[in-house]
Write a structure and sequence with these properties.
Layout lengths: L19 E2 L2 H13 L4 E5 L23 E7 L5 E5 L4 E4 L7 H8 L7 E5 L5 H4 L2 H5 L4 E5 H7 L3 E3 L5 E3 L10 E3 L2 E3 L6 E7 L5 E7 L4 E3 L20 H13 L6 E3 L8 H23 L4 H6 L7 H4 L2 H15 L5
Parallel strand pairs: 5-6, 6-7, 7-10, 14-15
Antiparallel strand pairs: 1-2, 2-3, 3-4, 4-5, 8-9, 11-12, 12-13, 13-14
Helix pairs in contact: 1-2, 6-7, 7-10
Length: 332
C-alpha cells in the first residue's frame, strides 16, 4: 500500500516582497520542474537590510551576542525551514523531507558554511522530520516536543481518510532531546519552542525567535491551501485555534510569521486565517447537529468564500470533508 501525501499545496506568491538567493541545485530543480514536477527550493531573507550574508559571522564576532541572520528555506509542497545563522553555527526549524533535504542543504550553503548545530521539529510528519539524519550526520542535535516521538513510531492505515498509510519513521529521524511545555533552545539569542497541545497534531511546537521578531508556526498555519488536521495524530480543531492564538499572543504588527507551508506572512493574515477556522467549525458542527450526511453538507458548499485562498473548490471540499469526518467522531 502506498503512502498518501496529506498536503495539497500549490505555489503562491509571497505576501510581502522578499529577496531570494538560489543555489545551483535549486535552480536545476526549478528547470527540472518543467519535466519532472520536482518542486524547487529557495532562500527568502528575513534579516534586516543592513546586515549581509556571507560564509559566517566572523566579521561581526566582536558584537555583543554575535551576529545573527534569519532565513527561510521555502518549498511549495514540503515544509518551510527557518535557519538562524549565528556566530559559530546554524539552528534550523524542521529537517525537511528525506527526498529534498539535500536541496535544502545546498540552498543553505549559499549563505553560510557554518555547521548546523541544532534542529527543532515542529511535529512528526515525514516532510518535517525525514531529513533529521542528514543534519545529525553533520553534528546537529535534534529537539522536539515529547509527544512527537510516540506519533512518529506508529505504523497504521487510516481507513476513514483515503486509506492513508501512516508509516513509522526511521528511528534515526527521532529527536535526541524532548521537552514538555516549552524550552529555551540552547543557541544564541532568545529562541523558544512552545508546545501547542492537540493542534495540528498532539505534539506541535511553535518556534519563537524573540530577538528577530520571527515565528515559525509549523503546520498550525498553512497558506495557499487548506490546513490538514491530523485527527489520528492527536490533532483537534479547537486545539488548532488555540495554537493560532498562541502565535498571535507572541506577535505584533511587525512580526514575520513563517507558516508550515506557504508564504511568509503577518499577524493580520493569521488573524484572518483564525476567523476561517472558527467559521468552518461552526458550519460543520451545525451540519452534524442537523443530521446532515457528509454529502449533504458538501452540497451546501461550506467553503465557498475560502475556496480561492485554498487553491480551488476541490481543495475546499476536501477540507470540509476532513472536518466533518473528525468532528462527527470526536469532541471539537
Amino acid at each position: 500500500m502506498t503512502r498518501l501525501d496529506h498536503h495539497s499545496l500549490r505555489p503562491s506568491a509571497t505576501s510581502a516582497p522578499l529577496r531570494f538567493i538560489w543555489s545551483h541545485a535549486a535552480v536545476g530543480t526549478f528547470l527540472a520542474l518543467l519535466l519532472s514536477r520536482i518542486v524547487h527550493l529557495a532562500i527568502a531573507i528575513l534579516r534586516p537590510p543592513n546586515s549581509r550574508p556571507g560564509s559566517g559571522c566572523d566579521d561581526h564576532a566582536d558584537r555583543p551576542g554575535g551576529c545573527r541572520s534569519v532565513y527561510v528555506i521555502s518549498g511549495f509542497t514540503n515544509g518551510n525551514i527557518v535557519a538562524l545563522v549565528g556566530s559559530k553555527g546554524v539552528l534550523l526549524v524542521d529537517g525537511q523531507s528525506g527526498r529534498r533535504v539535500g536541496l535544502a542543504d545546498s540552498a543553505l550553503r549559499t549563505v553560510t558554511k557554518l555547521p548546523v548545530q541544532l534542529v527543532v521539529n515542529t511535529h512528526y510528519h515525514a516532510d518535517h522530520i525525514e531529513g533529521n539524519p542528514h543534519w545529525r550526520a553533520q553534528g546537529a542535535r535534534i529537539f522536539a516536543q515529547r509527544l512527537l516521538v510516540g506519533e512518529a513510531k506508529k505504523d497504521t492505515v487510516i481507513t476513514e481518510w483515503e486509506e492513508w498509510h501512516r508509516e513509522a519513521a526511521d528511528p534515526a529521524a527521532l529527536p535526541d532531546s524532548v521537552f514538555d511545555d516549552s524550552l529555551a533552545l540552547p543557541f544564541e539569542g532568545h529562541v523558544t519552542a512552545l508546545h501547542a497541545d492537540s493542534a495540528h497534531t498532539s505534539g506541535d511546537a511553535v518556534i519563537w525567535f524573540r530577538d528577530a521578531n520571527v515565528i515559525h508556526t509549523g503546520d498550525i498555519v498553512e497558506l495557499g491551501a487548506p490546513p490538514f488536521l491530523d485527527w489520528w495524530g492527536g490533532g483537534t480543531l479547537d486545539g488548532m485555534i488555540r495554537g493560532v492564538d498562541l502565535v498571535l499572543a507572541h506577535a505584533d504588527d511587525k512580526t514575520r510569521i513563517v507558516p508550515g507551508h506557504g508564504w511568509v506572512t503577518n499577524r493580520g493574515e493569521v488573524a484572518t486565517y483564525r476567523k476561517m477556522l472558527v467559521t468552518m467549525r461552526e458550519r460543520t458542527l451545525a451540519a452534524i447537529g442537523a443530521g446532515q450526511s457528509v454529502e449533504q453538507y458538501l452540497a451546501t458548499q461550506p467553503t465557498r468564500e475560502f475556496d480561492q485562498a485554498f487553491g480551488g473548490s476541490r481543495y475546499g471540499e476536501r477540507f470540509a470533508r476532513l472536518l466533518y469526518v473528525g468532528l462527527s467522531r470526536r469532541s471539537p
